[in-house]
Each structure stands twice: as structure tokens, then as C-alpha cells.
Design brief:
Elements lengths: L6 H9 L8 H10 L7 H20 L4 H15 L3 E2 L12 H7 L1 E2 L1 H14 L4 E4 L6 E4 L5 E4 L4 E3 L1 H12 L12 E2 L1 H18 L3 H14 L4 H13 L3 H14 L6 H13 L7
Parallel strand pairs: 1-2
Antiparallel strand pairs: 3-4, 3-7, 4-5, 5-6
Helix pairs in contact: 1-2, 2-8, 3-4, 3-6, 8-9, 9-10, 10-11, 11-12
């Protein structure tokens, strides 16, 4: 880690690029670096290199995209033991790429990140899929081949439909448009939102605020995140910052379903003496 810059500064620099130019693994490791100040980013990107090297012969020897996808899954899920942490899904370590690489356990999005990065090193076009409720990956091509890194499986349309019903109810109808590719910034935002939720559930408000701040570094135009940051500031009694964020949210999204609640929060804040700078 560069002693002259903080992980937050390095993260901001890493994501202030066009989506395709962002190094996903580096940015994900810089998210973890706020929790692990001594984290060696190069050490963990080298770990991804090694995973790709271990899979190379099996993947390059495959004769079709389907066989290559199966080879990638066998290498990562079976040979290397990467799997979903079903025992402790909400363990915050599941959201930190360094921990996922160390422990071989994670949540759908961080495991998908491993597949994406190993695939990139093997010239396989593996991309993220922002599937409802359960992040997936896919090997782009004709046809696309859907991978569930959490369970180490290749999914056909019937399996995707079943996954959808599990999260959206028995009446949910699968549409392949749900398998759209997720961009790099979208993946980083989703990772940070998952981590923010873990911190909020644990009432670790300062850490939740740090996640919200980084989400807005990645995507400054996310008005609902602006609202969420304002509400966290309010709970932390940072009244001036809360007022700025909540007023801006109302200006940008006056007809949002949560606008009346935000307005009530602002009225209450002003009633108790207005903003106090913290």
C-alpha cells in the first residue's frame, strides 16, 4: 500500500475511469483495504494469476464454450474449493476479496468476481450478471452460458427460472433479459451495498457510512444512496451533513416514495434546533 495515499484515495482514483478501464480486482481489494490497512494488493492479484495458471491447461484444452465453462467451474469450485458460505452468509469477510481468496468462501458477487478475474486472465469473456437476489456470472457467446459461482454450477434456463422463483415468488416468470451483463461500477456498488447492509445490521454506523461514501464516489448520481447517507449521518448526529444530503435528495427526487419520510426527518431535525456541525 502506498504510504502517501489512503485506501479511500486510491479507490477514488481507481474508479474515476470509464467502466471498461477500471481494474475490478484492484478496486475490490481497495474496498477491503479500509478494513485491512496493511493489505498488499499485489499479493492478492498474484493469487488470481496463480488460479488462472492452475486452470489454464484444462480450460484451453476444452473444445467448446460449454466445455470451457465447465472446465472453469471444475477448476475453481472442485480443484480450488471456492464455494458459497452457506453457514455464515452475512459474515463481513464474505464481502472482502482478500478474505474470499484466503478462505475460499464468499457470497455470490465476490465469488463471481473471482470467476470474472480468472476468466479475464484466460481470455475467457466471463462477465457478471445482476440477476435478482442472487448474483451470477456468464461466459459471453452464442449461446451465453450462465454460471452460479456460489454453488459451482452451470445453469440452463430451467435452473435460472427456479432461482428466480426462489427469490421472487412462485409466480415469477423468467426472462433472459434478467441475464444482462453487469458493468464494473455496478458490481462495485452492489458489493458496497451488501457490506453496508451487514454493518447496518450490526449497528456499525461509521462503517456503514464509509460504504455509502464510497458508493457515491463510484456513482455520484445515485439519489437513493444520497438519501441513505443522509439518514446515516442523522443517526450519527452529524446534523449539518444530514441536512445537506436529505435536502438535496428532496430537490432531486421530490416525487420519490420515500420523500415524505425524508421531509419528516428534516422537519424534526429543524425543530430540534437546526443543523449542528459534527
Amino acid at each position: 500500500m502506498d504510504a502517501d495515499t489512503s485506501p479511500r484515495e486510491r479507490f477514488a482514483a481507481a474508479v474515476q475511469r470509464d467502466d471498461a478501464a477500471i481494474d475490478l480486482a484492484e478496486a475490490a481489494l481497495l474496498i477491503a483495504a479500509e478494513a485491512y490497512p496493511d493489505l498488499d494488493v499485489r499479493r492478492y492479484t498474484a493469487r488470481l494469476d496463480a488460479l488462472a495458471d492452475a486452470a489454464r491447461a484444462r480450460v484451453t484444452g476444452a473444445a467448446s464454450d460449454l466445455e470451457r465453462a465447465h472446465a472453469l467451474v471444475r477448476s475453481l469450485a472442485i480443484d480450488q474449493g471456492f464455494a458459497g458460505n452457506q453457514r455464515d452468509y452475512y459474515d463481513r469477510r464474505n464481502s472482502f476479496l482478500n478474505d474470499v481468496l484466503d478462505r475460499r468462501r464468499g457470497i455470490p458477487i465476490t465469488l463471481a468476481l473471482v470467476y470474472i478475474e480468472v476468466g479475464r486472465r484466460l481470455d475467457l469473456p466471463v462477465v457478471g450478471v445482476g440477476f435478482p437476489g442472487h448474483f451470477l456470472a456468464k461466459l459471453a457467446g452464442t449461446p451465453e452460458i450462465v454460471i452460479d459461482p456460489f454453488f459451482g454450477q452451470i445453469l440452463d434456463d430451467a435452473a435460472c427460472s427456479e432461482r428466480l422463483r426462489q427469490v421472487a415468488g412462485a409466480q415469477a416468470v423468467f426472462d433472459r433479459r434478467l441475464l444482462r451483463s453487469a458493468g464494473t461500477k455496478e458490481i462495485l456498488v452492489r458489493m458496497l451495498r451488501n457490506l453496508k447492509q451487514v454493518h447496518l445490521q450490526a449497528r456499525e454506523l461509521a462503517l456503514a457510512l464509509a460504504c455509502s461514501e464510497r458508493i457515491l464516489i463510484v456513482e455520484p448520481g445515485l439519489v437513493h444512496e444520497l438519501r441513505d447517507r443522509g439518514l446515516i449521518y442523522l443517526e450519527l448526529e452529524c446534523h449539518a451533513a444530514a441536512q445537506v444530503d436529505l435536502e438535496r435528495f428532496l430537490a432531486l427526487a421530490p416525487d420519490d416514495a420515500s420523500a415524505s419520510l425524508v421531509h419528516e426527518k428534516l422537519v424534526e431535525l429543524r425543530r430540534h434546533g437546526g443543523a449542528t456541525l459534527h
